[in-house]
Amino acid sequence: MSAIHRALKTHFGFDQFRSQQQEDAVNAVIKGDRDVFVLMPTGAGKSLCYQLPALVASGITLVISPLIALIQDQVEHLKALNVPARSINSKLPPAERRQILADLESESPRLKLLYITPEMVASPSFQPCLSSLCARGLLAYLAVDEAHCVSQWGHDFRPDYLKLGDLRSRLQGVPCVALTATAPKRVQQDIERSLKLRSPLVFATPVFRKNLKYDVIFRDLLPDPYVHLLAFAKEALGGNTAEKGCGIVYCRTRESCEEVAHKLTKLGIPAKPYHAGLKVGDRTDSQTDWMTDKVPVIVATISFGMGVDKANVRFVVHWNLAKSLASYYQESGRAGRDGLPSSCRIYYSPKDRDQLNFLIRKEIGRKQEKRGSEKEQDKAPLMDFEAMVAFCEQEGCRHATISQFFGNPKPNCAGACDFCRDPKLVRAQLARAAALSTRTGPGQSAEPRGPFGFDPELYAGGRKGYGFERHDEEWGSEEDDSEKRKKVFGSLFRKQMSLRRASDVAKETFVPPDDDCMLRDASSQRIPRLTVKSREHCLSLLQECLTNHRGAAELSHSSDTLDEAVEIEHEIFRASKSANLYKASVLKRVSEMKKSAAASVAEEKRSESNEETATCSSSSQPLDGFTSASQVYSLKRKRVGAGFRGSSSLFQTAGDLLKNSQKETLAADKRPGDPICEEEEQVETGETLQMKSSKTTPADSSPIKAKTSTATPLSSPSKKLTKKQQKLAEAAKDMRRISQYFGKKQVDTAQMKTGSVISEPEEEASQNHSSSPNHTDLITKISTSTDVETSTGVLQQQSPSAEEMANRDGTSTNTEITADPAVQGEHHQSDAQRKSPKQSHENRSPSPPAKRSRVMKDTKRVTFDPVVQETQFDTVVNGDAAGTSRTPVTLKEAADIVVRCLDPFYKKGKFATKDLFKSFARFLSHLLTEGKTAYRGQVKMEAKSLIKSFFSRIQRCESETDWRHLKVEDR
Ligand SMILES: Nc1ncnc2c1ncn2[C@@H]1O[C@H](COP(=O)(O)OP(=O)(O)OP(=O)(O)O)[C@@H](O)[C@H]1O
Ligand SMILES: [Zn+2]
């Protein structure tokens, strides 16, 4: 037995080296004439490559490691082996620190390994010690662990690692050992350069593993991806082998973990979910059951697998795309550790691709913004992600792609990937996918909602999972959990207490952002009672606005608009002091965008629409000859908020309104109609948003300008006061609704109204404008389904569909669609605050004025009345209200009815996927309206009976073929 083997046994208890690379690396380091670069995957035994030489050499080995936690782990491990290893770090008790320094300063220090962070090694306080060790020739090696941190191309770049180049220069004659897990070629080169490694000897584990079979399946092409997954899992697990196998399915979100696990179990393969949302006990159970082969499949977020070294993993599936090829290699590499044939599959979807692309770019932008400059290396995550995408979309050997990415030579795949096995099949799949994407249009795949949270830290790391944690997956220890529970309990307790005190809105427990949250500062709880969900709603509203107003030509880049929306949302978030202010500002921004778009469209169409304008706005006064889009497309009530002092904002509490009203009463006498004074006063303070009065200037037809528009003089204070008082009561009521709405997140479908009832303005319009957010837009948005849309007007084109709203909401139910906080909020707050004549319509809900209703012909003309809305859901879904059953409906309106009818079924889990729910809604809408004049009542009845008939035959809708035979006669 050689001396090195003896040392291996003596110090570490190992009989042999783990691999040839490990042994070779140890020998090279001991030889000491060259720098050494160790590239081995996590768990391959890299640490031994410097620890063993440190023990056989005389002197001290300085080990640079990026995290104190990692250092402590290593030191504890070595101490347990009786290896003289210590660390100097900021967490060290002073006595221990003095003891270590004293040893280092002694003539022959006992210490063999000194672990230190790059920050500490560069700190002035450590310099005398370092210089002394150096001068006395007591430094045996410089080991740089997690060396990829030195690379600005790596995900874990640490600026302090760059200083190691200088350190290296100072330690002339001290051999350097750099260690990292498998790194892309680009990163390897960066490490060598930055650490000034002198033609290092590289010891790298080849990335090619011939026992792993790689393939990629385009998920969107599958009739039922779950069935497909099941077949794959069954085949991979074999069943008749003596050795029991198991598998991992990686998903990005907790929801998909749950869903996939549920599906697989239901279809016949027991599977358990594993994610940060589970209670600690359940999570441990999942892991234990899987580790002990009680449950063959674990469906997990990427946190799972760190430290899990199970030999018989027969397959690793990525239900969602990994964020980089390096990550994918790492995660898929958990298959087949026993060397037996195993499979790695990606269920690829361009939706994933676009979502990730967006998130990565967003993250890059964020970094650059923070730094205030751009760097070439900022693009690294994007490049790594592109490598991942290329892996999926390429026509070529998957193994070769991986090897090339890591700078390895092309391996002999020998049919261990789908392309090498059957290139024709891969090409055919790509062709089908291309055809599908052409059919569905580029905008489809750019759906911004997606189950992923960007994690800039993702990179191959150490045992501690350094670089692997995701912001919401860092569940930590049991204690952390109990802390969390305490917090939750505390919050519940406070909630209950506030309920008892009859406080109007109970404080919500903050629900942290999901993986897919695209908001900036998503976890911030700075604004009380503002939920992540509400913010997401607002974000989607903003993005829809941007997207719609940009026109179809730019739809393919919806991530751009999303990007912009994210910025706008964040800007509003930062500037807002309360939830209401926030929502108000969002809505205001939405209205501004809509107005400017509508105004420009209206401008263009003005000549064409003169006729219609004359009819529709008979009682409206054109604004200096300008006819706004909202005037063209709907009839409006006049003077919402007329007489209220100006506010750019859309939300105001009843209390605020009362206060303002009182102030206003006083002020009105003093300075009636002093626009400048009013302008000053309308500056928002705290929770209070003051009303902005109607304007008569042409400028008003341009987007609302928050604090700059000129308020209208109060022409008749006494009369206004009376009206105001009435409206205050309404506002109070509506604010309650808003609060309830936001409190409950999803509520009250009955609040919304769609239809063709149009109320003509009753009040005399003293001002005319079209600048406020218009309800036609909003209602149309709610009742419109893009997929079934036959657009009849500008405003409809500008509106996102019900389905889109559902998609973005991530819940896909119409209840949620109609309960879009932003939309809802917009309605309610406009009760009190809008100045649009059309919107003033709402304000009179407590004592609805006599209305003349009429049915408009082609153009979808809808309006909003809270009183009517109270009964709307019943009217639309549950029963027919007089006068509406014979209302002809457009396809969009039919879709709205269908979605409402279907919604309860979706909620009960009667649809396997949201897409199915949507497809079925689409199918029914067409079925019920095509080739005939469809009436509201009839559509509703037919929809209900068709749905009933449908679900009387099947328990749950699993695929599109389920409704193949469904016809109108089926009901
Ligand atoms: N020759 C060997 N024989 C048996 N076990 C070994 C051998 N060398 C290392 N190990 C063990 O393998 C495990 C992983 O080793 P080590 O921590 O060095 O991995 P690593 O490659 O540094 O991983 P990481 O990337 O997490 O830092 C440790 O438990 C270590 O004790
Ligand atoms: Zn191949």
From TrEMBL:
Keyword Cell membrane: no
GO biological processes: cell division; DNA replication; double-strand break repair via homologous recombination; negative regulation of macromolecule metabolic process; negative regulation of nucleobase-containing compound metabolic process; regulation of DNA-templated transcription
Domain Helicase ATP-binding stretches: 27-201
Key words of the record: ATP-binding, Cell cycle, Cell division, DNA damage, DNA repair, DNA replication, DNA-binding, Helicase, Hydrolase, Isomerase, Metal-binding, Nucleotide-binding, Nucleus, Phosphoprotein, Zinc
Enzyme class: isomerase
Polar residues composition-biased segments: 612-622, 688-700, 748-757, 767-801
InterPro entries, sorted: DEAD/DEAH_box_helicase_dom, DNA_helicase_ATP-dep_RecQ, Helicase_ATP-bd, Helicase_C-like, P-loop_NTPase, RECQ5, RecQ_Zn-bd, SRI
PROSITE patterns: HELICASE_ATP_BIND_1, HELICASE_CTER
Protein name: ATP-dependent DNA helicase
Species: Carassius auratus
Name of encoding gene: recql5
